[in-house]
Write a structure and sequence with these properties.
single chain; alpha+beta; about 60% helix; extended
Length: about 500
């Protein structure tokens, strides 16, 4: 059983890794294409990408391998022979349960120690690739905007000499209003020795520069010059164009939730939670001390000096009505300014607290995810193995279809819970464990049906069950039909005609 299962598990695991890797690469293909990076950088990217898709590939591979293993046993009647010999389904599954439990424990340690390091290196590499300038390849007959602040049009190129013919260049580095247009019969592009600059040499051309913005700034002169025209036989342009691959420092991501293990996540959650509670208490004390929508402390002190028999309590409405129009306007304006100031302060405090709560939620979600991965491996095994014993179909046909359907259901439910937890609509534990709560009863149901040899997918068994309950249901069906017929309006003769 172990030999059969582990062989299928390794095969399906590699297939799942390949499929998910292609999907991950497709999402980041724009960061790789046209950057001119070496094979070493690409190999590093694919290596860390493989590690990042393991959490998704592992449960799917266990589901598919368990379905195929027990499907093959059922299709060849080996499972029936073992049961006839007195071996129960749980005794048959026992070595595989131990193996999957070991894989689940290994998945936790992988998610806790290996995955954070790989995530930091992968996203540092992705950010570095995004900032790298694309490989310079100016096409013929269309505008090229690969150089920041410039649009270049080339009518023709000489591949042997590298000479460009009939150039048109729009220099937008100073903004659209201060654009400079250059045309030249020919030109050539060179890189500086340090590969940080691009040297563009133009021959026999003209340049036009808009001077309207400069004239608006220089208000001393009344002379208006719309543009400046320059004719040149040779002109050189030095453009910033760093072609080197510069890596970001990994310390930028050290405080992110994806880069921490369980101990670091718990420490970060406790620290930020304590800061958030302290900030919340300070804000509450501030609101109470300022006594929003009430008297100021100075007024309270003045009132407290008056004797009790001399104190008067006024109704705000009657007090307002006793004022003249000028005082009413002044009171309303003062109240409005105070209310707006207090509202701004409350919104600012809410933003400060919301940042802390969002930080805590992200770390708590990552903490729960390290455990849900291991638990998902066990759940998928207890779904795949009993269902394979019930279906009794081996190979890659029916098991692949069932696995894909179950995994899509798991993925949709898991994403729904993840978004609910991320937005704070649900508690973090409820959102992150939602998929496990839904799939666990399904696994228990399939295991029970397989252990009791229930004909779950046999049409004849369902027909027999329907024939048993049909006499009890028929009277209710007839009664519902009679009620429905009575409620219908009777057709008149005109309707019949």
């Amino acid at each position: 059983m172990l030999k059969n299962f582990l062989g299928l598990f390794l095969l399906t695991f590699m297939i799942c890794i390949f499929i998910l890797l292609m999907q991950f690469v497709w999402m980041h293909v724009k960061d790789l294409v046209g950057k001119g990076v070496g094979i070493g950088v690409l190999s590093e990217f694919f290596f860390y990408a493989v590690i990042s898709v393991v959490p998704l590939a592992l449960p799917l591979a266990i589901l598919l391998a368990s379905l195929m293993s027990f499907g093959n046993l059922g299709e060849k009647f080996e499972l029936t022979a073992m049961k006839a010999a007195g071996v129960s389904l749980f005794r048959i599954m026992q070595p595989l349960i131990i193996a999957v439990s070991i894989i689940s424990v290994g998945a936790f340690f992988f998610a806790n120690y290996v995955l954070p390091i790989s995530q930091v290196k992968l996203w540092t590499l992705i950010f570095s690739l995004r900032q790298k300038s694309p490989e310079l390849d100016i096409p013929e007959g269309e505008f090229y905007d690969g150089i920041s602040g410039y649009n270049i049009y080339v009518r023709g190129k000489d591949t042997k000499t590298g000479m460009l013919h009939d150039l048109m260049i729009y220099d937008l580095s100073k903004g659209f209003q201060d654009a400079t247009v250059m045309v030249a019969d020919s030109g050539k592009i060179y890189f500086t020795e340090d590969n940080h600059y691009l040297l563009l040499v133009l021959y026999n051309g003209e340049s036009f520069e808009n001077l309207n913005q400069q004239q608006q700034k220089a208000t001393q002169t009344r002379q208006r010059i719309p543009y400046r025209r320059e004719t040149f036989a040779k002109k050189q342009l030095l453009i910033d164009f760093d072609t080197e691959f510069n890596r970001y420092d990994e310390s930028v991501l050290r405080d992110q939730h994806v880069s921490k293990n369980v101990t670091e996540l718990v420490h970060s959650i406790d620290s930020v939670d304590a800061i958030a509670h302290q900030r919340s208490r300070e804000q509450s004390k501030e609101m109470v001390s300022k006594r929003y929508f009430a008297r100021d402390k100075k007024q309270d002190r003045q009132v407290s000096t008056v004797k009790d028999e001399e104190m008067h309590y006024y109704d705000p409405d009657s007090l307002y009505q006793s004022m003249n129009n000028h005082d009413k306007h002044k009171a309303l304006q003062t109240a409005y300014e105070r209310a707006r100031t207090m509202n701004d302060q409350v919104e600012y405090n809410a933003l400060l607290l919301d940042d802390s709560q969002r930080y805590i939620r992200k770390h708590a979600m990552e903490l729960h995810r390290k455990f849900t991965l291991s638990f998902a491996c066990l759940i998928f095994f207890f779904i795949g193995a009993p269902f394979g014993a019930i279906v009794r179909k081996g190979g890659l046909g029916m098991p692949v279809v069932i696995s894909v359907v179950m995994f899509i259901i798991y993925y949709i439910i898991d994403n729904a819970g993840y978004k609910m937890a991320r937005e704070g609509l649900w508690p973090v534990w409820a959102g992150m464990w939602l998929s496990s709560f839904v799939l666990l009863p399904i696994g228990i149901f399939f295991t029970y049906k397989a252990a009791t040899d229930s004909a779950l997918l046999n049409p004849e068994a369902w027909i027999k069950q329907w024939e048993k309950i049909k006499p009890y249901i028929n009277p209710y069906i007839i009664r519902c039909k009679n009620i429905y017929n009575k409620l219908l309006p009777k057709k008149s003769k005109k309707n019949k005609i």
